[in-house]
Give the backbone structure.
Amino acid sequence: MFTYILGGIHLLLTLFTDFEFGAFKVIPFHIHGWIELIVSVALGGLAFYFYTINDAVSHKFYVFFAIAVFLTWLLTGYKQAERK
């Protein structure tokens, strides 16, 4: 359930971000980047929590989810995209 809610929040974030695919263009693109960085760290913490309660499936899922979000943050030029 948490992952579906996070997905819905990310969809809203994308729709309200000021970039090519944003519908409402309210949130600056670099703020979107900071939010993604924070989410990737939080997902890493959530993965660690699942590790401590011995939930291996959830642990692995959130580790890979955190890595995917972090790599997206790392490979996206948030500052460069705003200058264009």
Remarks:
- DSSP finds four helices and no strands in the chain.
- The radius of gyration is 14 Å.
- The helical segments are 2-16, 29-52, 56-75, 78-83.
